[in-house]
Amino acid sequence: MQYFFVLPLNYEKIAAYFANPYKNKCMQVFKFGGASIKSADAVRNMVEILKRFPDEKILIVVSAMGKTTNALEEILHLKLKKLSTKATIQKLYEDHANIVNSLFDDHASEPLEFLQSIFEELENSLEKIDINHYDQSYDSIISYGEIISSNLLLKYLELKEFSITKVNAYELVRTDDTFRDASVNWIKTKETISEKVKNEFTNHQLLITQGFLGGTEEGQITTLGREGSDFSAAIFAYSLNAKAVTIWKDVPGILNADPKKIQDAVLYQELSYKEAAEMTYYGASVIHPKTIKPLANAGIPMHVRSFSKADKGGTIIHDCKVIHEIPCIIIKEKQSLISFQLNDFTFITESLIGKIFDTLNKHHIKINMMQNTAISFSICVNDDLHRLDQLMSELKNDFSILYNTGLELITIKNFNESLIDRMTHKKEIYLEQRTRKNYQVVVKSLESRV
Ligand SMILES: Nc1ncnc2c1ncn2[C@@H]1O[C@H](COP(=O)(O)OP(=O)(O)O)[C@@H](O)[C@H]1O
Ligand SMILES: N[C@@H](CC(=O)OP(=O)(O)O)C(=O)O
Fold this sequence. Notes:
By secondary structure, the protein is α/β, with parallel strands linked by helices. The protein has two domains: about 15-320, Acetylglutamate kinase-like (Carbamate kinase), CATH 3.40.1160; about 330-445, VC0802-like (2-Layer Sandwich), CATH 3.30.2130. It has 15 helices and 16 strands. An eight-stranded mixed sheet has the order 3-4-2-1-7-9-10-8, with helices on both faces. It has a six-stranded antiparallel sheet with strand order 12-13-11-14-16-15, with helices on one face. A hairpin with a 3-residue loop joins strand 15 and strand 16. The protein starts with 10 loop residues before the first helix and ends in a 5-residue tail after the last strand. GO terms for molecular function: aspartate kinase activity; ATP binding.
C-alpha cells in the first residue's frame, strides 16, 4: 500500500524562494513618506539619515512632499468643476520653490528652472483631462507629486555628493490599466526591476525612485491607491530580494493605536507579518494594506522607524511567533454607510447581494464592514464620492438606497468593555459587530455635529 502525505503549501513563498534563493545581502530599501520630506529641514534630516549608512546600497522610494497629493487632487477637482485652479497651483509651486531656495541656496537656479517647466507641463496636462476617463485623468495629474519630489531630491543628494542616480517607477513597476488602483504584474515587474536596478547599483551607492506610481505596457502612468508608496517599497524589495525595508515615519514605529488620537498608545517592538497585515486590513493607516504580503512571501523584514529619532529601533515586522494580547485600536475615518433596501417586503437574497457585490467590484469599491437584515443590506466603505455616485446611480433602480457620510469605523482587537465605552463615548452608533476577539463599530461623533 502506498501512502501520500499532503502538506499545506504556500506556493507563492516557495516560488519566491526558488526565484531568488539568496538574499541580496548588499541592498536594502528605504521609504521616505510625505511627512519626512515636507520641508527643507525635513530633507536635511533625510540626508543625515542616509549618512548613517555609508556602506549600504540603498534604493530610496519617495512620496510627494508634504500634502502635495491632496493639493493635486484639489486642483483636479477644481478643473473638473470648471473653477479657477490658479491660486492652488501657485501655492503648490511656491511651497516647492521655498524648499528649493532654502536647500540649494546659490545653486537654486537649475532646480527652479526644472520646477517651472514641470509646473507648465502640469498645466498643459490639466487642459487635456477628460471627465469621461476620470481615473486615468486622475493618475496623469496626481503623479506629478512624486515626479517633482524624486527629481528635486535627486538634485539635492547629488549636490551633497552622494553617489546617486534615479530610476523611474512608472517605467519599472508594470501594472494593468486599472487607473487609481492598478494591479501589479509581478513577473514583468520583477524582471524589469532586477535588470535595471542591478545595473545602476554597479555604479552608484544610492538609487532614488517614486513611490505610488506604476505604468502600463503602453507607457501610461498609473497609481497604486492613496498612500501606496509603502507598497512601492515592498514591490522593489520583493523584486530585488532586498535584505530589509525601512519605512521612515513621523511616529516611533507601530503602536497599538494611532498616537495622534490615543495618548497612552504603546509601541510594538516586533510584530508578525500576520498581525501587521491584520492591522492594515482594519485600517491602521501607518502602513498601506498591500505592503505586507510581498514581504512576507519573500521573508523580507520591514522596519518602521522614526525619522526624527533615527537612533531608535522602532518596530520590526518579520516572521515571528509573538502574539500580542494587549488591545489594539484602529480608527478609520472618512467612512460612508450605505444601506440597500427593498420596499415591498422582499427579503434580501443571495442573488440581490450578488448584484451589489458585482457592482462594487466593477467600481473598485472595497467593503470595510457589512451586515444584513431581512430587508436591508448595509456596507461601510471609504468616502469616495466619485465611485459611490457611480455605484448608487447603477443600483438605484433595484433598491432604495440610504447613505450616511462622515462616519468612523472603529476596530478594537482584544477588546474589553471599558475600552468599548471609552471609544464610543459621545458617539452615535450606526452599526456594531463583535467576535470573540474583535469589536467593530461604525459611529458618528456627536461633538462634531452642528
Ligand atoms: N497604529 C499606529 N501606529 C503608528 N502610527 C499610526 C498608527 N495608526 C495610524 N498611524 C498614523 O500613521 C501616520 C504615519 O503614516 P503616514 O502619514 O502615511 O506616513 P507617511 O505619509 O510619512 O508615509 C502617523 O503620523 C500616525 O498618525
Ligand atoms: N503621495 C501619495 C502616496 C503616498 O504613499 O504618500 P505618503 O507616503 O505620504 O502617505 C499619497 O499621498 O497618497
